[in-house]
Specification:
With about 600 residues, this protein is α+β, with helices and mostly antiparallel strands. The chain has 15 helices and 19 strands. It has helices at about 30, 150-185, 185-205, 210-215, 225-245, 245-250, 250-275, 280-305, 310-330, 345-415, 425-455, 465-475, 480-485, 500-520, 575-585, and strands at about 10, 15-20, 40, 45-50, 55-60, 70-75, 85-90, 95-100, 115-120, 130-135, 140, 145-150, 460-465, 485-490, 500, 525-530, 535-545, 590-595, 600-610. Helix 3 (about 185-205) runs antiparallel to helix 10 (about 345-415). GO terms for molecular function: kinase activity.
Length: about 600
């Protein structure tokens, strides 16, 4: 290369030759002497050797005669090389050795800069060879440049500006979320602050600012750059548990996160015990697993309807792609360019911004969820109020009904007391017994209805065949059917099965059949049909009796409703009400159909297929 005054920066990588010392035993004299012919030309703008235990030797020829009197510098911009040594030619034909690296105290550097800066001698009349020796336990990525004094100032200005914006954003996020944690008393914000602190510690280390400003005399700490990862990962896990609501919404995933936290604790102990570079490999593996795990977790939770996870997913999927490229670059599996070193910073900044926005989105989501719960609670309260009002009406109806029913036998009893032993007295006593029996039946039926309506657990359900139950009921009512000369047409198939409580289903069918017998005209026909629908079975029991008006069909299922005069009708107005309770508690439906007075009556029962 030939330096000239018209440029302030020159790429030097393409002009370098490379020699790899696999065992690290060669010294400078050997490399310069008998091994000089083994150097191979490099044709890439950046040099990447991945994780390697080899020593890398670089050689380049430089003619600085045209810039005599100017200051020029060789700058290696990758700040976390363990050892980098420049062998620069001197005027007497020898070589001057300058050692740097992040394993040495910061005061060993010739300039107060995070990058490795080597001053060069300008004004030599001919081309001279320079040698660079690099070794380290971590990934060896090289971005060497030649800068004039002006170029170095411009590079430093840009470098400070970019990283100043980066760390300024992190600092703003830390302060902002810390204030939110104090004001809202939500632990999720504290976990996010811990995550930000871990990101900051990690980047301060790999950017070289930690050694420059925080621990300049303790370079050993640079080997523990991965400690920032062990701050980030558990904080991220706790943040995700609270942000995604795993404990309440997805307990299985919550158990997975607890196992992940336990694994981190074990890995931390292992990593403290194993030497570099194996500790570096382990931390890299942990980063890959973490990004994959939380990308998958966010996507899964989002796909299951948790809308607040959308920005969480966007954060981790972009970060996953950037980290994937960064890891491939460090492993030398893709062509290395200097922008690869910035990918963790760009990814971290993206994640920080998106997760912070996600917290705001979560607040909006929780507000909507709270409003929805408030609306549901209000509707539930209104429904309970209506139910209580209906219960009060039912109690009033029941009291009126009982009072009315008690009045008649009481009058009979009073009349019977004034009679003698003649036939009229015997008839009165018979009426009293009839009233007594009706009262006993009314009380027992009412208790049965209230027991059914008030139970909190549904009955034990099983597979039932309606045909078998109907055949048994028809056999037990054969006398009543003959007495009214009724014909029954039963078309329920033997293969029809429903899911219900068998005893209660038989009771419902008995109520329907008794009503059909009671209200059918003599010599009429009762039709019973059954069919299977898509998910339900339908049973219809129809008679050709007196029917009901449209306004009466729903009232039939209200407690204590009796069509006609109470004194001339049998029953207590509770049979259909009990039937509805039993059918609905089995997961079915029941209703009545009628074309009008004297147009017949159909009771329709639908139950889940068995």
């Amino acid at each position: 290369m030939t330096l000239s005054g018209d440029r302030d920066q020159v790429e030097v990588a393409r002009s370098m030759e490379v020699l790899v010392d696999p065992e690290g035993h060669w010294d400078f004299q050997t490399v310069r002497g008998r091994l000089a012919s083994r150097f191979r030309a490099n044709d890439s703008a950046e040099l990447n050797f991945g994780f390697t235990g080899s020593v890398i030797w670089l050689r380049f020829a430089l003619d600085a005669g045209a810039v005599a009197g100017e200051d020029w510098y060789l700058v290696e911009r990758y700040p976390i090389l363990d050892n980098i040594t420049l062998f620069a030619p001197t005027a007497d034909g020898g070589y001057r050795r300058v050692d740097m690296g992040d394993t040495l105290p910061f005061h060993h550097r010739l300039m107060n800069h995070r990058a490795f800066i080597f001053p060069l001698e300008s004004g030599a009349p001919a081309s001279r060879d320079y040698y660079v020796r690099i070794s380290g336990k971590g990934a060896i990525n090289l971005s060497p440049m030649l800068y004039s004094a002006t170029g170095l100032v411009e590079y430093t200005y840009r470098d400070i500006l970019v990283y100043g914006v980066f760390y300024g954003c992190l600092l703003i996020m830390v302060i902002y979320n810390a204030l939110l944690a104090l004001s809202l008393k939500e632990p999720v914000y504290l976990y996010f602050v811990a995550f930000l602190v871990g990101i900051t510690v990690f980047n301060l280390n790999i950017n070289g600012f930690g050694l420059q400003f925080l621990w300049p005399e303790v370079p050993k700490l640079n080997e523990y750059y991965w400690l920032g990862i062990y701050i980030c990962t558990p904080a991220l896990a706790m943040y995700s548990r609270h942000f995604l609501g795993l404990k309440e919404r997805f307990p299985r995933y919550d158990r997975l996160i607890r196992g992940y936290l336990l694994g981190i604790a074990v890995l931390l102990v292992v990593q403290l015990l194993i030497p570099a570079p194996w500790s570096y490999y382990l931390s890299t593996l942990l980063v890959v697993i973490t990004v994959l795990l939380f990308s998958w977790l966010g996507w899964t939770v989002w796909s299951r309807g948790y809308r607040a996870a959308r920005l969480y997913v966007a954060a981790w999927f972009v970060f996953l792609g950037l980290i994937f490229v960064f890891v491939l670059g460090n492993l030398d599996w893709v062509p290395y360019v200097s922008v690869i070193t910035m990918l963790p910073h760009l990814g971290a900044l993206w994640v920080v911004v998106m997760l912070s926005l996600a917290l705001g989105d979560r607040i909006r989501f929780l507000e909507q969820e709270r409003n929805l719960l408030f609306q549901e609670a209000r509707e539930s309260l209104e429904r309970h109020v209506r139910e209580i009002e209906q219960m009060n009406r039912d109690k009033s109806t029941f009291l009126q009904y009982v009072s009315h029913e008690l009045n008649t036998p009481i009058n009979w009893i009073g009349a019977a007391e004034g009679l003698g032993d003649d036939d009229q007295a015997a008839d009165a006593r018979a009426l009293v017994r009839k009233g007594q029996q009706r009262l006993v039946g009314m009380v027992s039926t009412s208790l049965r209805y209230f027991d059914l309506a008030d139970r909190h657990q549904p009955p034990l359900l099983g597979r039932c065949q309606p045909l078998l139950l109907l055949e048994a009921l028809l056999a037990s009512r054969a006398g009543a059917l003959r007495g009214r000369r009724l014909t029954v047409d039963n078309r329920v198939g033997a293969g029809l099965c429903v899911r219900a409580n068998e005893a209660e289903l038989q009771e419902v069918l008995a109520i329907a059949l008794d009503n059909a017998i009671r209200f059918s005209h003599p010599e009429g026909r009762v039709r019973i049909t059954g069919r299977a629908l898509s998910e339900e079975a339908e049973i219809r029991i129809a008679d050709g009796g007196r029917g009901a008006g449209p306004g009466q069909l729903e009232s039939l299922f209200e407690p204590f409703f009796v069509m006609g005069s109470r004194h001339h009708e049998e029953g207590y107005g509770l049979s259909l009400a009990m039937a509805r309770v039993m059918v609905e508690q089995a997961g079915g439906r029941i209703w009545a159909e009628s074309g009008g007075p004297d147009q017949g009556f159909t009771l329709v029962i639908r139950l889940p297929l068995g």
